[in-house]
Amino acid sequence: MFRLKTLLFLLVVTSILLTACGGAAATPPAATEAPAQPEQLSGKVTLWMWKAAHDTLINSGVLDEFKKLHPNVEVEVVEYAPTDVYQKLPLALQAGTGAPDISLVENSHLAQIVSLGGLTDMTEWVTPYLDKMNAYKWADAELDGRYYAMPWDSGPVVFYYRRDVFDAAGLPSDPESVSEAVATWDDYFNVCQTIMEQTGSACFSNNKANNYGRLYEMMLWQQGLGYYNAEGQVTVDSPENIATLEMMSKFWDANLTSDQLEWTDGWYAELAAETDAKPIATLIEAAWMGAFLKGWIAPGTEGKWGVALMPTIEEGQVRAANDGGSAFVIPDQSQNKEAAWALTEFLFGNVENQVAMFKSSDFFPSLEAAYADPVFTETDPFFADQPVREMYVDVVKEVPIAYVYGPHYPEMNGFVATAIQKVATGEMSAADALKEAADSIRAQTGMP
Amino acid sequence: MAKTTLLKRPALRPAEKLAQAWKDIYKVRWPYLFISPFYILFLIFGAYPILFSLYLSFTEWKGLGPIKFVGFRNFELLFKDKIFWQSMANGVILFFMYVPLMTFLALVLAVILNSKRIRGFRFFRTILFIPYIMNIVAAGFTFRLLLNQKYGLVNTLLGIFNVSPVPWLESAWGGRVSLCLLVIWAWLGYNMVIMLAGLQTIPSELTEAALIDGASPMQAFFYVTIPLMRPVILFSVVLSTMGSFNLFSEIYNLTGGGPINATLTPVIVIFNQAFGNFRLGYASAMAYLFFIILFVLTLLQFRYFGQQVD
Amino acid sequence: MPIRRLSLFLTDILMYGLVIAASAFMILPFIWMVSTSLKPADEIFAIPPIIISPNSTLNAYKYLQEQYNILGIVKNTFVIAFSATILRLFFCALGGYGFAKFRFPGQGALFAFLLGTMVIPGAVTLVPVYIIMRDLKWIDTFWPLIIPGAANAFGIFFMRQYIMSVSNELIDAARIDGAGEFTIFWRIILPIIAPGLTSLGLIFFMGSWNDFIGPLIYLKSPEHFTLPLIIRSLVGPVGRTVYDVQMAASVISLLPLLIIFLIFQRRFVEGITAGAIKG
Description:
The structure holds three protein chains of three kinds.
Chain A: H1 2-22, E1 43-49, H2 51-59, H3 62-69, E2 73-79, H4 82-95, E3 102-106, H5 107-116, H6 123-126, E4 142-143, E5 146-147, E6 150-154, E7 157-162, H7 163-168, H8 175-181, H9 185-199, E8 204-205, H10 214-222, H11 239-253, E9 257-258, H12 265-272, E10 282-286, H13 288-297, E11 305-308, E12 326-329, H14 337-348, H15 351-361, E13 364-365, H16 388-398, H17 409-424, H18 430-445
Parallel strand pairs in A: 1-2, 1-3, 8-9
Antiparallel strand pairs in A: 3-12, 4-5, 6-12, 6-13, 7-10, 7-11
Helix pairs in contact in A: 2-15, 17-18
Chain B: H1 2-8, H2 14-27, H3 29-56, E1 59-60, E2 68-69, H4 73-80, H5 82-114, H6 121-129, H7 136-147, H8 153-160, H9 172-199, H10 204-212, H11 217-246, H12 249-254, H13 266-275, H14 280-309
Antiparallel strand pairs in B: 1-2
Chain C: H1 2-38, H2 59-68, H3 70-101, H4 107-116, H5 122-135, H6 143-146, H7 153-164, H8 168-176, H9 181-192, H10 194-210, H11 213-218, H12 227-233, H13 243-263, H14 265-277
């Protein structure tokens, strides 16, 4: 009797445990002998990317085209927020299991993930594309002369502004005049003051206590600066970097900015606000921002936006920077690398498909041959029929080499963001805060 | 039983001794068998990791590739690491911000509910305790929603009384206060229930006698209840101390350690170093130092605790 | 003594005021959580705030099922919490019995050691345990959430205290009848300590159901997620936070525990207070 009961109990427990865990055991996609012939590629390709990117693949129809070409390849997209990718992908790479066949990675985190190891060496595959993509995109994909990523898009930074607010402030609102009016950050400061006096609108959003440094990075990039230099020395506390942060604080001190944190509902609401509801007047951001404004942040403001060139710190510098941009990596543990590369090359190495994706969502191609497409001269009703894409192309060609991203980017960004927060909340001067950050970075990364 | 057999036994040769010892142990094999699962699991998931962690703390390792031995470098770095020491300081600040307040509130509420002067004892006890069963992720995000500076319900309600919007999650002290609100919300009921159980062990005649002798309810509370409750109070304080340094999910889901690192606690910093920067060696060194400091702190409290109880 | 009666009256008012204020503070987040989960998106930040929207909808809940298969997530959470609880109860009762009803060499030291392990913060073992799980190929499975905690020091301590109050006569009688030691545990002890098991089981179940850091580290695929993890994953840095959906998931995560708690409230409270008072 007792034995039977005991046995039953153990059976129940083990069966529960087995269903619990058996169901969870991740089975990697079945290994397939992948021959080079495209029509014979088969098997499953899992792909990690965020929602905006997934929507682009679907809405532009490129995924369907790929399926027509390779009917035996099944593509499964898993949507993750970028922060989740940066946590899960390295863990999966270390674990040797659980990684997808392809993952999308932003350039900001690419070098860190490349330096961890565990990615497929794509050098043989990407060599034909080395001189076909924006040159600066390869820096984060390379380690010791080998390449571990294939670029998708670039983030040429421009100056978005509300034409209606400029009109209300009595300022000229056509793109040429605005570009001229905000030629330098000093000019920009005067424009912001006029806007604040005339309309009460904040010039741009730059949160104080939770600032994460993205705008500051664009300002550095525009000057060809960064967190370190070509020799690998930490430059976080260089006079130029300090001056840049001091420039930023001028806007805080004069109360010209909104404190809404980027990518929160308060920020969306101020970007989408009606003319008389004190909308945020300007926004310095990369080309992909256009699609977000149009698509889901402020679709109701069609025709009220314009695009100009970003301001420079010193007169006469290039008016271009990069923010974000992304690339595909193929984990070494993938069982279907051939098919994964076929998809990667099909999407990013092919002018037609890059253009199709750009049309659908303003993910700006890193593939330079794409710029010849007539779509880049088209006007856009959202920006009051301005041919904004021409400007993106002009800007991307000017983007200087800068040293913002790199294998230690997350740590550096963290320390500098804290410094910016301390300056913004009046806790420390720019020089002291950046010195403190630089010391910490030197100690922690071992960089000189 | 075992003892008597041992005494009666004549002198034995070593081999026999060993066999006899084994026999003795075999006789009492059952309790060893019964308690063994804990020690086996602890060996694998406790002892081995603690030793491995100690080894890792002298190395540099990203989790992949070779493990590089670096001697005491991690600890040298650690003593200069402002973020780590700030996180320890934050633990102390948070402790003083919420532990005394929460303990006092828990005791007062327990005394009130226990006084039988309040109707609906069960009802109120249930209400006050329910936050304890809510998972902290859900609680964190609900608080984020409530405390949003511009759109949150709390600032909207305060606006009715002409209070200008409070930067709950938008300033260093606002972040700390918000975090304390969340922790008190989640843990007050738990502490109160412990106090209630403690109060029920105090004979009610004692406080009643004090009241009859002319003491005010306040006096009775401070001069009769609190001294008798000392062991229970200290138990809850010791638990809360360990809690304030070990806060993780509360912070991860409410403030993320910000604003301006004001709510970073050691566990968050260790987690970020391990799973954000992949510096497993450094994270291990940090965990070790944290463990030692916390251990000493707990030991001190237990000594204090012990003295008070005597 | 009118002054004295007045002061007692005022104390009563103060006492009610405090209890009601504290209760309001405790209840407010729940009200807002439920209310937000039922609101259409454009009313979430409406000013003045809307508590019960006339346009209430279950869309957020439907969305959760369609997009995230929330019932599957509930099932994951339950399977993990239930397996972990059963396993823990079994080993804790067994260990507690071993310590409570036997005398054996090294008992005191072993028990002190067991209690000592309770002060080790989880942070120390975070990295190495992760490496162990990785080498066992247990990442993205439920095992790391079930196995390491299967015998828990607090639980053994709790069961020891509980079993000490069980009379020895029953055990001795069974031994004389020739019952094996495990049979005695299974047949005699377990039924007697059922109330204690319930108390402890409720605490274990709640802890596992609400666990966040474990699933955060070990679960990778969305189809293996647990409820706390799915609530967390509903925020993205780019894109609107779907507050209604997030709050709906929060409601779903709370409801089962709330029902269990309301049914077993007494046992629950016993479990929590036992450590503090008896210890």
